[in-house]
Structures are given as C-alpha cells and as structure tokens.
Amino acid sequence: MGKSTRGLLAGICGVALAVVGTAPVHGAAPAAHGDGGPRQPAWETKSSGSDARFRGLAAVSRSTAWVAGTKGTVLLTRDGGRRWRDVSPPGAGALEFRDVEAFDGRRAVVLAIGEGEASRVFRTEDAGATWTESFRNTDPKAFYDCLTFFDTRRGIALGDPVDGKFRILATDDGGRRWRVLPSAGMPAALPGEAAFAASGQCVVGADARAGSHAWFATGGGATSRVFHSADRGRTWTVTDTPLPAGDPARGVFGLAFRDRAHGLAVGGDYRAGQPSARAAAVSGDGGTTWTPSGRPPAAYRSGVAWLPHSRSAALAVGPTGSEFTRDAGRTWRAFDPGSYDTVDCAPDRGCWAAGEKGRIARLARPGRGPGPAALRKAVPAGRTPAAGRSSSRGTP
C-alpha cells in the first residue's frame, strides 16, 4: 500500500482506540480438559509498568516472556510477569517494534516496521543488556511486517510487495545477517494486497518437525489469501481464504499451525463498528484449502495460538475480547472482554497475551480464580462486541 493509504489506516486506528476503549480483565480458572486444553480459560493480568502498545510477543515458558511495542520498547520477564525489565535497544525510541522472536531468556530478535530505514532488525544474546542492529532496510519501496524462525539459526521476515511481489528476507545464522531472497518463486500480489503488522503473526512456521514450512497471510486485495512455502521461503504457493476481503482494512491478520497440516486463520475488518462475520477459518491440508469456522469469534481478531500438547485447543485474541476453541477452530467461545493484540504459547503451556496501554496477561493455571460463574458474568450471553482495530502498513 502507498503512503496515503497507510496514513488513512493510521487515522482509522486512532478513532477505533477512542471508540472501543479498554475493558477490565478478570482472572480465573481453567479446568483441565482431556486433550490438554482448558475447559474454561481465563487471563491473569500482569503489571508491565509501561504504556506502550505491545504487538510483538514471544512466550519462552510460564516464567519467561518477551514483549515488543511502540516507542522502541522491549520488556522481559523471568518470574512469571511479577517484574518486567525494560531492555529496549538504546536510541530506539522512535521505532515501532511489531514482532519479537526469542530462543530463550537471553537470545531474542526484534523487528521494527516502517518506510525505508524504519524497517530494522535487532538481536541480543545477553537478555537485552546489549543489542546489535543486524539489518536496516535501504530500499524506499520495501516495508517489513513480521518475522519467524524455523530453528535457532534459520528464519525469514516478510515484506509487503515490491514491484508486484512480496519480499522475503532470510537469515541462516540466528539473525546476525540477513539477505533478500530472489522473487522468482513468489506468486504475483493482487492489486492493493499487503500483510498486516498487527500481531507478529502474519508469517509463521510450525513445530520443529515441520522445520522447512512457512505460511504468510494477506489482506487488502479482492480476496484474503494465505501463501505457503515448503523450502523456507524460496518458493511459494497461494490460496484464497473465506475471511473478509475487498478493502484495505480487511483480511487475514494472524495464523497458527500446530504441524505442517493443521492451521488456523483469524482476521476480519479491524475498523470499530464494522462486522466481521467470517473472522476465522481452519485448514487440514497445510493451507491448500480453508473452511470458515461454523461459529467464528464475535468480531475481528488479530492473534491466534494453539495450546501445546493439544490437537484441538487454541486461543484467539483481539481488541474486543478473547475466544477459545476445543474443536480445532470449528467453533469459538468468548471467555474474556479485554483488549489484546497478540497471543503466544510456550511448550510448557505457558500462554501469554499482550496489547495496548501496556496490557500483558498470562493464562491462569487450572483451579485458580473465581471460576466459570465469574467468567459468565464477565462475558454475558449473547454479547457481540464491535469490531476492533489493528494496523496494516503504518503506525496506528
């Protein structure tokens, strides 16, 4: 999208912030479910001490997580969110961090988005005590949105179309050096098509067993689409999805794959008050085909994550609430009205969410909190929140 479109989207996002506001969050009690998923999940809020908006999130474990957001802010916790350390790169205050990928509590890579040189990548190996800028975009036509790693060495970053094709940046040394991959294996972009830098989930991989597979999501064009690569970003195929399209504010905003076959897509129309009747879809064939959820989330959602060790449980979040599924995305049920932009789960089932005004939460353990009765009170039956806001290219 051009600069004028990005400016329009930024204005829309600002209006949506005023309309939607921030709902209170209620901690509570997931009870154990047979397939490793929660019967009634609930968020426990954590005080971050920041007012940044966090769209980048990396869950390392129940005790360790990284968040990255506005004003060049990067925070790290190692004690389950009781304390957050500001480990922001020096001099990064003017940058918009939209994604963070962490290998552990010491090593992480963060992505800043924007026109030209505003798109940058930083890396730390000492828990944020020092940072190295490992990439700075010098192409004024390029704009990077999100990144993912296949393992501790190999990763890719997704950029919006340049000369009619999406751009892929690649590393094979843990993010120390990056190179632009040839575009010959990339299908042509649709007019107006772009990725959304809304949750750090516009490009994703799967688990370690699917280490060469990646997917990225788009919107803004006549159809919302998902691209798939089986060779770490060198060649791609593309398919349409049933999520809303045909407008710069509509499309697929977040993806999650639990293996090389089973995927979830969430999105919609991020503008406040706009309906998102088909805000989620599922795939059982690696993204070749997508089926709309029979009972989708109530409104636009920007983040989605599978619960580890489960074949059917997942979480979705957005500015107007959170949902969970126990049937692999076929039906979604609301459990919290709070505003979150992104969600991520660690292998030890430590799931985290983050969003505007410094909001960070961790999924409660089974048996804690006021339980399902309070949950029902927090999310009244029949509640249909207004569509939320996110961002594609540009700064909301």
Please explain how this structure is put together:
By secondary structure, this protein is mainly beta. The chain is built from two helices and 28 strands. The protein has a four-stranded antiparallel sheet with strand order 1-28-27-26, with no helix packed on it. The protein has a four-stranded antiparallel sheet with strand order 2-3-4-5, with no helix packed on it. It is globular, with a radius of gyration of 19 Å. The N terminus is likely disordered.
What is the average of the pLDDT values?
Answer: 86
Q: For the terminal residues, how far apart are their CA atoms? A: 15 Å
Arrangement of strands in the largest sheet: 1-28-27-26
- Tertiary shape: globular
By DSSP, the count of extended strands is: 28
Q: Give the low-confidence spans.
A: 1-37, 369-392
Beta-strand proportion = 25-35%
User: How does the major sheet shape up?
Assistant: 4 strands, antiparallel
- Give me the strand/helix succession: HEEEEEEEEEEEEEEEEEEEEEEEEEEEEH
Which secondary-structure class do the elements indicate?
mainly beta
Question: Helix share of residues?
Answer: under 10%
Our count of helices gives 2
Radius of gyration: 19 Å
